[in-house]
């Protein structure tokens, strides 16, 4: 009743479509403001927001693709990761506690005809990506941004989870026969299904890093 004075009456007796819409908006807003705070709709909205908040707070998971043995040795020994400057935007999504599965390409150890692409380690992110005080250089390439890692498990040299054997069961590879085209970047996001699949397989062959780290850095 008290809302009627808020609605501007048109000059003509006929109410225009715009005025009618405005009146409906005002009435809806009033009904919302007068609704008790603990109605079923209100509680449903709170539950949805809580669910979304939980999803945001959950760690994300990625494949960390490594194609150079010198870089791999540095990553494992220093427990850090560095990225090219041009990719700083694409890796800025990394957050502390995110999961990383370290994947070495067939050419990582310079024997592509002998080696296989393997997941060899599990790590968690210890810091957000930021500009390094001193850029890292590998094979003439500069890597000016990076983050700290915690290497949790590591396979013995030459061992690991061959990604090709799991490609048909992974969600990220929409075309499993051409799975290699999906991992042509340093950081590849994977869903929880793919992460758990690879993590379970890795757990069967990986050990405590200090037991095998010298096999990679010497």
Write the layout of secondary structure elements.
Blueprint: H1 17-34, H2 40-57, E1 61-66, H3 69-78, E2 80-83, H4 88-91, E3 99-104, E4 118-125, E5 130-138, E6 141-154, E7 161-162, E8 187-190, H5 192-203, H6 214-217
Parallel strand pairs: 1-3
Antiparallel strand pairs: 1-8, 2-6, 3-4, 4-6, 4-7, 5-6
What does this entry look like structurally?
- With 218 residues, the protein is an alpha+beta fold.
- It folds into two domains: 16-56, no CATH class; 59-217, ph1033 like domains (ph1033 like fold).
- The protein contains six helices and eight strands, in the order H-H-E-H-E-H-E-E-E-E-E-E-H-H.
- The protein has helices at residues 17-34, 40-57, 69-78, 88-91, 192-203, 214-217, and strands spanning 61-66, 80-83, 99-104, 118-125, 130-138, 141-154, 161-162, 187-190.
- Strands 1, 2, 3, 4, 5, 6, 7 and 8 form an eight-stranded mixed sheet that branches.
- The protein is globular.
How would you briefly describe this protein structure?
Helices cover 30% and strands 24% of the residues. The chain has six helices and eight strands. It has helices at residues 17-34, 40-57, 69-78, 88-91, 192-203, 214-217, and strands at 61-66, 80-83, 99-104, 118-125, 130-138, 141-154, 161-162, 187-190.
């Amino acid at each position: 009743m008290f809302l009627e004075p808020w609605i501007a009456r048109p000059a003509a007796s006929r109410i225009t479509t715009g005025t009618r819409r405005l009146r409906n908006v005002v009435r809806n807003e009033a009904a919302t403001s007068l609704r008790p705070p603990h109605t079923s709709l209100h509680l449903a909205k709170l539950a949805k927001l809580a669910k979304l908040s939980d999803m945001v707070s959950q760690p994300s998971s990625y494949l960390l693709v490594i194609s150079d043995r010198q870089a791999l040795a540095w990553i494992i020994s220093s427990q850090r990761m560095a990225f090219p400057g041009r990719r700083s935007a694409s890796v800025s999504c990394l957050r502390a506690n995110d999961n990383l599965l370290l994947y070495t390409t067939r050419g990582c150890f310079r024997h592509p005809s002998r080696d296989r692409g393997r997941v060899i380690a599990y790590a968690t992110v210890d810091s957000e990506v930021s500009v390094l005080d001193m850029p890292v250089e590998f094979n003439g390439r500069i890597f000016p941004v990076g983050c700290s890692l915690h290497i949790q498990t590591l396979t013995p040299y030459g061992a690991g989870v061959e990604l090709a054997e799991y490609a048909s069961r992974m969600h990220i590879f929409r075309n499993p026969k051409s799975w290699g085209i999906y991992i042509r970047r340093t950081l590849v996001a994977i869903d929880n299904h793919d992460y758990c699949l690879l993590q379970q397989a890795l757990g069967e062959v990986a050990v405590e890093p200090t037991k095998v780290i010298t096999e990679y850095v010497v």
